[in-house]
Every structure is written in structure tokens, then in C-alpha cells.
Amino acid sequence: MAATIKVDIVSAEQPLFSGKANEVFALAAEGEVGILPHHTQFLSTLKPGLVRIVSGDEEEHFFVAGGILEVQPDVVTILADAAVRAEDLDEAKALQAKQRAEEAMQKAQSEVDFAKAQSELAEAVAQLAAIAKLRERLSKQGLSH
Amino acid sequence: MAGASKEIKGKISSIKNTQKITKAMEMVAAAKMRRAQARMEATRPYVDKLKRVIGHVASAHPEYKHPYTQASEQKKIGLLVISSDRGLCGGLNNNLFRRCIRQIKDWQEAGAQVKLGLVGRKAENFFKHVGGDVVSSVVDLGDTPHLDDLIGSIRVMFDMLDAGELDALYIASNEFVNTMTQQPTISQLVPIQSEEVTDKKPVYWDYIYEPDAKTALELLMRRYIEGLVFGAVVENAACEQSARMIAMKNATDNAGKIIKELQLAYNKARQAAITQEISEIVSGAAAIEG
Q: What domains does chain B contain, in order, with CATH numbers?
């Protein structure tokens, strides 16, 4: 069997692949690259596309929405994006988070029903804890029956 | 007497109802906790691999040094506070907030400004009360938070770092020690602290970059921070479920104890009522016979 290189493909939400391969193909920033063992150090952004892992006669395919490719002579690391990312999409989400902060700091009361039901239950739980503690203290002092 | 026993009976049934709810919540939390823990495990490899790559980068001699890796004076600090959306999870959120307030005070005494990025409804409510310079907020991440939901909040911080409005970024979240223990922690995200991978042979090397060093390293650093934040959020979700499970278990146990005692009191009251009734009948009969 030909020389092999260790390959790890991970995304933020789960690991996708970990194993050995003879060759790895990925869509780097400036076109598809084929990585063989003992490749020089290489760091690139990834374009959305297929990552192919060739080991022997077998070939495995993974689709990545983007990410980072890092190559060391003995290991290839592919950090796949968990979601579709685009500059303006990220920007829009940032704006949302900002607005939410401003609104939330001004709004006095919201989502009252759920909060109310929950605080009632919290009160009941706190009461139980308080009673239990009181009983314990009383029985320690020998005052209870 | 009959009045007292009726009152006790009412109390018992009300506590029993509460106990049913807490018991159900305990079981739901236990099931969710297992799933949250599995998710937590699944996110670890990403951050570990990123750490490895960052370590490589630190030991290389890149032609471009990314600002996030440069230590600077910390006068403008960003703090991401990770909390849960729902309560009833013991002191989980409050312990974290107390830790935050202490840290913020320390920073302010050292002359630093602190800007807050909030995750979770509890943090939002808390900082609404105590005040603070809140620049971003996301809520309703649900039981299975996705990176997608966090991008906006992190992006706000990135933009401020790039614009020089912040020179350091920290994150406050709960660390999952085990099912019983959650540790509120504050850790530094930017400047990135990387352990240099010290090779035995100090060879001078650098990467081949595509499209260029700046773009590639920039993306790497951003993904790294995002990975860390996402990891913290997922871990915090696991903490929330286990804290809730414990809190609800305690509540259920407390309710059980109290029901037992009330039952005893109820039985005593009932016994006393019966005894009194019998003695009344007996003395009544004796009076007629006499």
C-alpha cells in the first residue's frame, strides 16, 4: 500500500471523518488541490464543494459549505463550516443581535405568561425547600414531635 | 377538629400536584441532559483540531501576524455572558452572574470599560435590572443550540474588535465538571492564547497560503473564536439540564418529606376527632342510663 496521510474532517457540531488516506482532494481558494503524503505546509480557505478522500480503491465524499484546510506533512485537517456562511448573511445576523439588545434593554415586560407560570412554580419549589429546612432545624432542636 | 383535618388534606393535595410537576421536570431534564452531553462531546473535536492548527501557526513564522494574537493593554473589554433561557435550574445562572459582576467590578476598578454580549433570556433579564453596556443579545436558542444562532452575537464583537472599540474579549459560562457540579468560569478569547507546539528541531518554516496569509489567518482566528463560543454554549446547555435535574430532584424529595409529615398530622387530627366523638357518645349514653 502506498504512503498514507492522516485526515481529520470536523465541523463545529460534529466530527465527520477521521482516518488515513492516500490522497485528499479539496476545493481550495484558488482551485482544487490534491494532497499527497509529505505535502508541504499549506493553509487555505475552502470553497463550498466536495472533499474526496482516496484510500486504496475506495473513495469517500464529503460536502463542505466552506471552511479551512490545513496541511502538515503528516496530517490534513479540514475545518468545515457548520452552516452556510456569507458576509452579508453574517452582517444581517449581527444587526439582529444588536437590535435585540437595544429593544430588550428598553422593553419593561414581555413574554409575561410563560414567565408568570414559571415563577409560580419556582415559588412553590422555594416554599417546599424552606419548609423542609425549617422542619430539619426544629427536629434538631428537639422541638418537633 | 374536622376543619383542621380538611385543611391539611387540601395542603397535601396541593403539594402532591407540585411534586408531580417537579418529578416530571426531573425526568425530562435527565433525558435532555444525556442528549446535551452527547452534543457537548461532539463539539470537542472541532475546537481540539482548531487548537492544533493554531498551535502550528504559532510555531510557524507567518509573514502576517493577526491582531487577535497580539497582546495589548486591556482597556476596552468585551464580555460574552452565556446563560440559559429558562429558570428552575438551581443557582446555575445566579452563580455565573455573581461571578461576572465581581469580574466586571475588578475590571472597572482597573480603569477598563466593559461591554456585554448576552446569550440567553436569563442574562438579558439580569442585566436589564443591574444595568450595563449591552451591545448584543440573542435568546431562544432552545435545547439544541446551533452555531447559526450565535453568529450574529459573535460578529458584533468581531466588528468592535476590528474597529478598535474593544481590545480584549472574554467569555463567561458554566463549565460542566460532572452531573452534580457546574463551575462558573470566565476565560479569555482574544488575544488568543495558544500553546506553541515546540518541535524538537527548530526548523524555520511557513505555510503556503491561499488566497493569501491575511485572509486565511483571519478566517482561522474567527472560526476558532466561534468554535470556542459555540462549545461554551453547548456545554452551558448540558450544565442547565443537569442543574435542573438536581434542583427538581431536591424539590421532589422535599415535597415527599412534607407530604409524609402532613399525612401524619392529618391522621393524628382524624384520630383525635374520632376519639372525641366516641367519648361524647359514651358519656351521652351513660347520662341517659344514669
A: 2-27+246-289 (1.10.287.80), 36-243 (3.40.1380.10)
